[in-house]
Write a structure and sequence with these properties.
heterodimer; A: 153 residues; three-stranded antiparallel beta sheet; 1 helix; B: 170 residues; mainly beta; five-stranded antiparallel beta sheet; globular
Chain lengths: 153, 170
């Protein structure tokens, strides 16, 4: 039997998991839905974003939630020339570690700078939320970050 | 607030939907493609090992015992024997069949390998090892190269098979 007589089909394997997020990440996601960026106070007064239930250095409980941003600084980044369907933006963008104003750790998210030549580590960016009606309390409530001064489009 | 509409305040976020999804291309290979094309024609196709003579359905293209290619195609009967079974009473996410239902290993006449099938048209407490069953297919125009072409198996009305005839296949 010639090779071409073998069948071929597209399949999708899918599990509809949901997970409970706990009080701290829950507060962070609730903040996103409200269009606010929240961190948590860790040991020694540092602010951890995204927040964790435990301080990553001491293992102790973290404290109060602290509002951070909406601006921040790009610490490092990698350009995505060919976005995949699951990526936050359909057009080329940067994955970047962004240290938000008031935070001591960096958050990973997309930066829509227009091109790799229009982004550098140390640049200031600001958050761009989805419209309030579309926000559900998930990381994708942040559409992307954009260079401070507005979107390049 | 600029919203004109009054909405219920939303509670804190407690869960996050995290669906896991894998899109993939499946190529069943030449031997299994023959089985699937057989289903498209409303029949079960297997392959015989040239060395031990056993008939595998669906065939993977080789004999797992002798390690030789299976090249002879064999059309199998539409009837077979329930070797073992399980009555499913537990609901689970994504369930498409009404519970309780019977999931059975069916050994088609002429085959030396059983495969899993749904048993319907019988109360679940009447299923038994050795029960003779027949395949019920979808309408002719709905046949596809998929096991979905077999709607289910149902009792054929024949007397039960003797245990000796299927004890090798448990």
């Amino acid at each position: 039997m010639p090779e071409s007589e073998a069948l071929h089909a597209s399949h999708r394997l899918e599990y509809p998991y949901s997970r409970s997020v706990g009080p701290v990440i829950g507060a962070f996601l609730t903040g996103l839905r409200e269009g606010r960026l929240l961190g948590v106070r860790g040991a020694g007064g540092s602010v951890i974003v995204p927040p964790t239930e435990y301080d990553p250095t001491t293992g102790g409980d973290t404290g109060e939630m602290v509002e951070v941003g909406p601006g921040g600084v790009v610490e490092s980044w990698a350009w995505v020339s060919h976005p995949l369907p699951k990526h936050p933006l359909p057009s080329p963008f940067a994955w970047a570690l962004i240290r938000l104003d008031g935070a001591d750790t960096a958050l990973l998210h997309a930066v829509d700078s227009g091109g790799p030549d229009q982004l550098a580590s140390g640049d200031r960016v600001t958050v761009r939320f989805r419209p309030a009606a579309e926000r559900i309390g998930a990381m994708a409530d942040i559409e992307s970050f954009v260079p401070q001064g507005g979107a390049p489009r | 607030m600029t919203d004109e509409t009054v909405t219920e305040p939303l509670g804190p976020v407690t869960t996050l939907a995290t669906p896991i999804r894998l899109d993939f291309e499946f190529t069943p290979g030449v031997a299994q493609s023959r089985f699937l094309r057989g289903l498209e024609q409303g029949k079960f196709m297997g392959q015989r090992c040239p060395k031990c003579g056993k008939v595998y359905v669906p065939s993977r293209g080789s004999c797992p015992t002798d390690g030789v290619p299976t090249t002879e195609d064999v059309e199998l009967a539409n009837v077979g024997t329930v070797t073992t079974y399980c009555v499913v009473n537990v609901p689970f996410a994504g369930q498409s069949i009404e519970i309780p239902y019977i999931c059975a290993q069916v050994l088609l006449d002429g085959a030396n390998l059983s495969f899993m099938g749904l048993i319907q048209e019988i109360p679940t407490d009447e299923i038994r090892m050795g029960m003779r069953v027949e395949a019920v297919w979808v309408e002719r125009e709905e046949l596809k190269p998929s096991l979905a072409s077999v709607r289910y198996f149902r009792p054929s009305g024949e007397p039960d098979a003797d245990y000796e005839t299927f004890k090798e296949y448990l």
